[in-house]
Specification:
The complex is a heterodimer.
Chain A lengths: L10 H76 L11 E9 L2 E9 L8 E10 L2 H4 L4 E11 L10 H7 L7 H7 L10 E13 L6 E3 L3 E3 L2 E6 L24 E3 L5 E5 L4 E2 L3 E2 L4 E2 L10 E2 L18 E3 L5 E6 L9 E5 L11 E6 L3 E6 L3 E3 L6 E2 L5 E6 L3 E4 L3 E2 L8 E5 L21 E6 L2 E16 L2 E16 L2 E6 L10 E9 L7 H4 L8
Parallel strand pairs in A: 6-9, 6-28, 7-10, 7-28, 8-11, 8-29, 9-12, 10-13, 12-14, 15-17, 16-18, 17-19, 18-21, 19-22, 20-23, 21-24, 22-25, 23-26, 25-27, 26-27, 27-28, 28-29
Antiparallel strand pairs in A: 1-2, 2-3, 3-4, 4-5, 5-30
Chain B lengths: L1 H50 L3 E3 L5 E7 L15 E6 L4 E6 L7 E9 L2 E6 L5 E5 L1 E6 L3 E3 L2 E6 L4 E8 L10 H4 L1 E8 L6
Antiparallel strand pairs in B: 1-2, 2-5, 3-4, 5-6, 6-7, 8-11, 9-10, 11-12
Classes of the chains: A alpha/beta, B alpha+beta.
Chain lengths: 530, 196
């Protein structure tokens, strides 16, 4: 009988052989799977760690943007608050969306902070907490409000609760797995947690208030002038008395800045013989061939906030008519701009020898005129009288024209004669089926060898001075100056403290990120010190 | 037997070769990944300090010195922050109210980045220098550029520093020049405290 398992193979042989093959295959397969599993898990752990590190780096960058956003929101709120204050409106509206004046105690210190919660439903994982403090003594700042803004931007972290295996990454980013160093440091443990994992960055910015008169000449759009030299002096300098009056070119001060907000083209054109003892700035536009004309710097990344002028008041102390001569006696109670004597001038102000506008110091120093029409002070000598010790502001709802000898200003300080130009009111809305009202025309400023500070960002300005001196500051939409053959523009640095705060700029910027000695050797965790 | 032995050798050889290439590939990926991470990390360190710098001095390849505000009162973990000072600062031709930290307007803390061996260090003041990255090089460019609208007129219009971080992988193919396998990472930082 033929063996069905083949020649020489007994059933026993066959069973043994099959059992042996099956066992080795299984062992090899299991070993291979184990090796591959170990390799895969090692790789996954490595890749996962790198992925978490990458996510943490991304969120760390977002935390800076979030903190910066808090600073920018603060600036926007302060700017709006300044505008509302200048207009005599309730300033609380500037802080809509903020929870203000919250407090937290950390150690022995109590902090006051404001919380700005993200209102964007798409980014619930971000939050900004801002602490705003007024800083500086009133003597140094001239009564202006400087602010320190501490802004903490916090962003939640995705992924696992593990930090990077790279110590320098941990040292830099300080991600919060169990607590948040930044918010704990500033506001205590109660505010520390936004989520189970988060990263924060802290920005500290110092905001400087901006006067309308930061520049000798500033235009929204274009500036054009002839042979002219710009420099500065400081009528308020009690340390160096010789600087209180203008001097020869650049000898008393070099802060006569000139600039525009223009973004393209050539924004400032001039004849080549002048000189700017200060800086020149634009918002992207260029200037014309100025290789040797600017003493300090020429920057093309500066934007200056120029809010339009609004009506100064609705209630007033005195009404004056253009039909007759006007005499204003400023009482003793008018000893600051907040308590200034308010005069409502009911029409155009065109004083003449027969209809003078005379201000008397009756114990007080501050007076504000609201002129409901054009202001033309160029007809006759000394037809507008501003005596020593009086500071006068004129809000003009029309064109402005001032000439040197028509204004009696014995102090010779431009800060004592400030003019604001209101923009033309917008054309009335067209009734249904009717033609719209004509667009409002651009108003004008005309200066002739004058001492004044004029802020009229919606007016087109022209000035004229032949071989003479103009003193003060001029802010307008466009500026054209006919200046021949050697005219001088003298900027009074005291104007930097005049005119209220129209905006704020970051004058100092710091990110609170410290690197401790101990980290390199002991690996101590970061912790708040206070 | 001979055939099966030959086949087995081929299979084992292929497995070994594949394993070596896989290992090499894995090592090069890891090296490359680490290089990229180091580039990013170094950029972030430099950007943080440049952003708050008051002055910048680039003294050559792999060396950068910045002066940052004297913001902290101590030298320990969790150093206390200073209160800012608002004061009148008199210069040659101007008197300005300025904000600053520390004893005077000119008081600063020096932060220096430099390379020793394969490591790049960050040293703040007199503190211990900390190694922050390896296997990378860096250069900085703080340009005084020609105004394109006015040729010949040097402007410094945006207060920016451009960083260039270079990484050269250690794993390389034979015959490939270093310059052909280097990876550059660029970043441009605006110096927030200059020109204010």
């Amino acid at each position: 009988m033929k063996n069905p398992r083949g020649p020489g193979l007994t059933p026993e042989h066959s069973r043994q052989s099959r059992r042996s093959d099956c066992g080795s295959t299984l062992i090899i397969a299991l070993t291979t799977i184990t090796v591959l599993a170990v390799l895969a898990s090692t790789m996954l752990a490595y890749v996962g760690s790198r992925l978490d590190t990458a996510f943490q780096a991304t969120r760390w960058q977002q935390a800076l943007s979030t903190a910066e956003g808090g600073v920018q929101q603060t600036i926007a709120a302060l700017n709006l608050e300044a505008t509302l204050r200048e207009s005599g409106l309730d300033t609380a509206a500037a802080w809509t969306g903020w929870q203000r004046n919250l407090t937290a105690t950390v150690g022995a210190k109590t902090y006051t902070y404001n919380q700005l919660v993200s209102t964007d439903a798409d980014t619930p994982e971000r939050r900004t907490i801002v602490q705003v403090d007024q800083i500086g003594d009133s003597v140094t700042t001239g009564g202006r409000h400087w602010y320190r803004v501490r802004s903490v931007g916090t962003v939640t972290l995705p992924g696992n609760s593990r930090i990077s295996s790279d110590v320098s990454d941990v040292r830099l980013r300080k991600v919060g797995i169990q607590s948040d160093w930044a918010r704990t440091r500033l506001f205590g443990a109660a505010l520390a947690a936004l989520g189970p994992r988060q990263v924060s960055r802290v920005v500290e910015a110092i905001l400087e208030p901006q006067s309308p008169f930061q520049y000798a000449l500033f235009a929204r759009n274009q500036i054009s002038y002839g042979h002219m030299t710009l420099d500065s002096y400081d009528s308020s300098d009690t340390t160096t008395v010789s600087r209180q009056t203008p001097g020869s070119d650049g000898s008393k001060g070099q802060m006569a800045n000139i600039g525009t907000n223009a973004t393209t083209g050539t924004a400032i054109t001039s004849l080549p013989l002048g000189h700017v003892y200060g800086s020149a700035t634009t918002n992207g536009a260029s200037v014309q061939s100025w290789q040797t004309q600017v003493s300090w710097e020429y920057r093309k990344d500066i934007y200056v906030n120029l809010p339009s002028v609004t009506a100064p008041f609705t209630t007033y102390n005195q009404s004056a008519s253009p039909a007759v001569a006007t005499t204003v006696n400023v009482p003793a109670s008018a000893n600051s701009w907040a308590t200034a004597w308010k005069v409502d001038y009911t029409g155009a102000m065109n004083p003449t020898a027969a209809k003078k506008v005379t201000i008397n110091n009756a114990g007080g120093n501050y007076v504000i005129f609201y002129v409901h029409g054009n202001m033309g002070v160029s007809n006759g000598n000394n037809v507008l009288v501003i005596p020593n010790g009086v500071k006068a502001k004129f809000y003009v709802d029309g064109n402005i024209a001032v000439g040197g000898s028509s204004v009696s200003l014995p102090s010779k300080k431009p800060g004592d004669f400030i003019i604001y130009g209101l923009p033309p009111s917008a054309g009335a809305a067209a009734p249904r089926g009717k033609k719209a009202a004509a667009a409002a025309t651009v108003r004008t400023v005309s200066m002739d060898e004058q001492i004044a500070a004029i802020y009229a960002p919606d007016h087109d300005a022209s000035a004229k001075a032949n071989n003479d001196t103009m003193i003060g500051s001029l802010v307008a939409r466009n500026i054209t100056i006919k200046a021949n053959p050697h005219t001088q523009w003298k900027f009074d640095e005291a104007l930097l403290k005049e005119g209220g705060d129209i905006s704020f700029k970051i004058t100092h910027w710091m990110e609170d990120a410290w690197f401790a000695d101990a980290w390199a050797t002991t690996g101590n965790a970061y912790r708040p010190s206070n | 037997m001979l055939v099966s032995g030959l086949m087995g050798s081929i299979v084992i050889g292929a497995l070994l070769a594949g394993s070596i290439h896989l290992q090499r590939s894995f090592a090069s990926q890891k090296d490359y990944s680490r290089g990229l991470t180091n580039q990013t990390l170094l950029v972030d360190y430099l950007a943080l300090d440049l952003r708050r710098a008051k002055t910048v001095t680039a003294t050559g390849f792999n060396v950068l010195t910045v002066q940052i505000p004297d913001f902290y009162t101590g030298n320990q973990n969790g150093a206390e922050r200073r209160e800012p000072t608002i004061a009148l600062v008199t210069r040659a031709q101007s008197r300005m109210v300025e904000a600053f930290y520390g004893a005077a307007y000119t008081t600063c803390v020096q932060v220096r980045y430099y390379k020793t061996g394969t490591n790049i260090y960050r040293q703040e003041g007199t503190k211990t220098a900390l190694a922050i990255a390896d296997t990378v090089d860096f250069e900085t460019d703080y340009p005084q550029i020609d105004d394109p609208d006015n040729p010949g007129f040097l402007i410094d219009d945006l207060k920016r520093v451009t960083l260039s971080i270079r990484f050269t992988p250690t794993v390389k193919r034979q015959g490939l020049a270093d310059t052909d396998r280097q990876t550059y990472l660029f970043d441009t930082i605006t110096l927030r405290n200059l020109g204010n």
